[in-house]
Amino acid sequence: MANSRPPAGLTGLALLNNSQYNKSTAFTEDERERFKLRGLLPAAVSSQRLQTELIMENLRRKAYDIERYILLMALQQRNERLFYRVLLEYIEEIMPLVYTPTVGQACREFAHIFRQPRGFYITPTDRGDIFDILDNWPERDVRMIVVTDGERILGLGDLGANGMGIPIGKLALYTAFAGIPPAQCLPVMLDVGTDNQMLREDPLYLGTRQPRLRGADYLALVDEFVAAVQLRYPRALIQFEDFLTPNAYTLLNRYRNKALCFNDDIQGTAAVALAGVFAACRTTGKAFETLKILFLGAGSAATGIGDLVQFALVAAGLTPDQARKRLWFADVDGLLVAGREGLAPHNRPYAHDASPAGVIEAIERIKPQVLIGATGSPGAFGERIIRTMASINERPVIFALSNPTERAECSAEQAYRWSEGRALFASGSPFAPVLMNGKTLKPGQGNNAYIFPGIGLGALACQATRISDEMFLKAAEVLADSVADDDLRQGSLYPPLSQLREVSLKIAAAVAEVAYRQGLAKAADRDIRIETIRAMMYDPVY
Ligand SMILES: O=C([O-])CC(=O)C(=O)O
Ligand SMILES: [Mg+2]
């Protein structure tokens, strides 16, 4: 879908200041005449190609990634199509700047690098008015909403209203990889306060300067938000992002059967991890249903993966009980076993009858083929843990999923070094290839960016009414099947980022198919071929 001509009457400086239609120096002679731009631009007529190179030249001149982030956000504010063109053409270089890891730093410093508002902010004082104030948003056809309350931003903790960088970054990926038009995307910050004292004391902090709203008042605010969205934007999909675990589960369970929504950290991360496990089976030759998996971390990402793996094991023929018994969880205090005090509800199904054990002892006892970290705790995979995994597995599968890079459980280099290059390693944030014994090993990026754009696109394409577990399982299968044998040989369990748009399309078509099969699709036209969906996608070319 090419972005069309400016609406009648949008001319002159107003056109140059409109990020959706601005082409800046690339307006042709003819357009300059028609749109009253003569005199407002230097004489040379540029092209989007040349402008792309200009952006890259300026970007590479900067000394810090945070400066590059600021440059790219400014570009997004003034020339949307150029921003997305740059992102798509230089994806390996740009994605780590607008997404993890740099977006993590951008959130930390959000108030200090603030230039212009973007997205929609809701505070406790808006109680009772949310439907009305949503009318202030200029777009009438919002389809994709990413909302956070900032309490668990990546592995960085409570960043309050600074967390707005995350919905903005996720939606940029929705447009780039799923072709959701920017005008249909809405980033939302539920600014219910922060318990991060340092932020509240920062004079530049831009959020509500009060302790977090909790309990019934919190739920009432989120209820009102979801209801207001359903009324204002009945076709919109709500993606919950970076909520702290208890709220993440509470909200998912509260709305999943009432609204078109999902939680990316629970369900998106689960599907990307499951896809990595499927792909690893292709390398190791082990049957998926014979695997045992140990999770380090007992938050929403870890148990989200556990729940989807269990679902997949049952789909592969195991009973729920047999499936659960293959999955073990540990945290800093060791194995989560039955009878341990203070177990959260989402952990209980996986707290098996066993004696307590530290992580190393647990690995020796359980002999898992797969170790998955979602702890937010850097260095959680120390040398002994990796070596123990490597001593019991020819090809140990090691996922260090915490973000950003500085929070990863171990680095790619460590996983390879401590396993003599045998580990099948993936991480949530990018790591550079590693040279080991003359062979280049390319770690894959096991990030939910491989999943959520396709889920969203598929759901919107068929006007899904709900997002189901089957959709995530299917997405994981499609993603695993998209990994080329060559990539597997180099150690990557995921396709290269450059294939994200194609992968998202394949996932979207598969998700729409599942939706029809499950009676969860409203669109009358059942023509869900990839080409039909491709034709709906936003194309940032002028
Ligand atoms: O944003 C990312 O890179 C992945 C993610 O959802 C998280 O770490 O919370
Ligand atoms: Mg997240």
TrEMBL record:
Domain of life: Bacteria
Amino acids binding (S)-malate: 152, 403, 447
Entry cofactors: Mn(2+); Mg(2+)
Domain Malic enzyme N-terminal residue range list: 76-256
Note on how the cofactor is bound: Divalent metal cations. Prefers magnesium or manganese.
A GO term, aspect molecular function: NAD binding
Catalytic residues in the record: 99, 170
Root EC class: oxidoreductase
The keyword RNA-binding appears for this protein: no
Segments forming a coiled coil: none
Keywords: Metal-binding, Oxidoreductase
Annotated Malic enzyme NAD-binding domain residues: 266-516
UniProt similarity note: Belongs to the malic enzymes family.
Protein name as catalogued: NAD-dependent malic enzyme
Source organism (scientific name): Methylomarinum roseum
